[in-house]
Amino acid sequence: MASCGAFHSFLFEYDTPRIVLIRSRKVGLINRGVQLAILAYVIGWVFLWQKGYQETDSVVSSVTTKVKGVTLTNTSTLGARIWDVADYVIPPQGENTVFVMTNVILTLNQSQGRCPELPDDKTECQVKNNSCFPGYVSTHSNGIQTGECVSYNSSIKTCEVLAWCPVEDDSHIPKPAFLQAAENFTLLVKNNIWYRKFNFSKRNILPTINSTYLKNCIYDARTDPFCPIFRLGQIVEAAGQDFQEMAVEGGVMALQINWDCNLDRAASHCVPKYSFRRLDNKDTAHTVSPGYNFRFAKYYKNSDGTESRTLVKAFGIRFHIVVFGKAGKFDVIPTMINIGSGLALFGVATVLCDIVVLYCMKKRYYYREKKYKYVEDYELVSISGGRGKADLLPSLSLERF
């Protein structure tokens, strides 16, 4: 019966708020201070800085690029040679990227056959104590070992391989870079963006740019911030790097285009902002496989019908065009949501003042007695149904602020 009585006591309880007015300068200052802080947060941060009254959308973008520049090299291997876009931009078009070759190792007139492997502590061998194993891939992955130990030169013997001969020797990278003049090549970036929610589109070649200006301008953050043509050396330097140093072994750069637009203003205020940074790791403590390079070959048919090739190990700078941004425009729904959230935050001031009054002040016990009032009432409640008996059960009501 005790548990039944406790259940009925809980069932007939009722809480009602009680307002207690406390005249205290300290508590009043805390209350107003918290309210002002909340008001400043809602107006300053939520509405002015974060533009909480706007609906937002992320950018959809497409990018095309075009590189221009010609240079002349004169070496004992190739003689005098002109290099244009078709030679150093590989491949001709990429998805939001462009690779410009700045250095190269050429292995000319390769043909398939048998030849000695490059000498090192793993490939050098002796005829009497042969360490070459037929069918094994060579140490430098240039070919398949035949099992023979042959002369590389008059003093060194190495394992023979079936490969494109002569095998590539990439132990010495040209310094300075083979195409050091690439620093003055230019890159045209054409970028079209679209904000789907607002049906707003634009491109980085702004309406104020005419063909005459486009033919002569070069991007400069101070004098020509909206010119879409960039000098390669300037991109690298703007990221705090040295172009000639980077050109030797290659690297990866990002050309970033930011389209943050407030569409409550005129469309002319929605303009691109360019920034630059290096993406690959240039940590002096981690020097394994630095830079950026890859190989490709150009094949030829000789007059006798045999096939030969020129193997190209290309070092260069890969430019990634990274487009990001968001647009915002006034909308009633986010405005009302943020206003409601801001008003709800004012309850924090009351909670904080309650904590100070009830737990921190000297008269906390006195205030706690005034805040909570317990009222007991006794009602005749029938709990026995058909037996006609009644119990007097206490009902507790808590009135609080």
UniProtKB/TrEMBL annotation:
Chain ranges passing through the membrane: 29-49, 339-361
Keywords annotated in UniProt: ATP-binding, Cell membrane, Disulfide bond, Glycoprotein, Ion channel, Ion transport, Ligand-gated ion channel, Lysosome, Membrane, Nucleotide-binding, Receptor, Transmembrane, Transmembrane helix, Transport
GO terms, molecular function: ATP binding; extracellularly ATP-gated monoatomic cation channel activity; purinergic nucleotide receptor activity
Reaction(s) the record says it catalyses: K(+)(in) = K(+)(out); Ca(2+)(in) = Ca(2+)(out); Na(+)(in) = Na(+)(out)
Binding-site residues, ATP: 66-68, 186, 293-295, 313
Disulfide cysteine pairs (residue numbers): 115-165, 125-149, 132-159, 217-227, 261-270
Keyword Ion transport: yes
GO cellular component: lysosomal membrane; plasma membrane; postsynapse
Subcellular location: Cell membrane; Lysosome membrane; Membrane
Glycosylated residues, chain numbering: 184
InterPro entries: P2X4_purnocptor, P2X_extracellular_dom_sf, P2X_purnocptor, P2X_receptor
Gene3D superfamilies linked to this entry: atp-gated p2x4 ion channel, atp-gated p2x4 ion channel domain
Magnesium keyword on record: no
One BP term from GO: response to ATP
UniProt topology in membrane: Multi-pass membrane protein
Pfam family, one: P2X_receptor
Principal location: membrane
Subunit structure comment from the entry: Functional P2XRs are organized as homomeric and heteromeric trimers.
NCBIfam families linked: P2X
Family label: Belongs to the P2X receptor family.
Function in brief: Receptor for ATP that acts as a ligand-gated ion channel.
Protein name: P2X purinoceptor
Source organism per UniProt: Lepidothrix coronata (blue-crowned manakin)
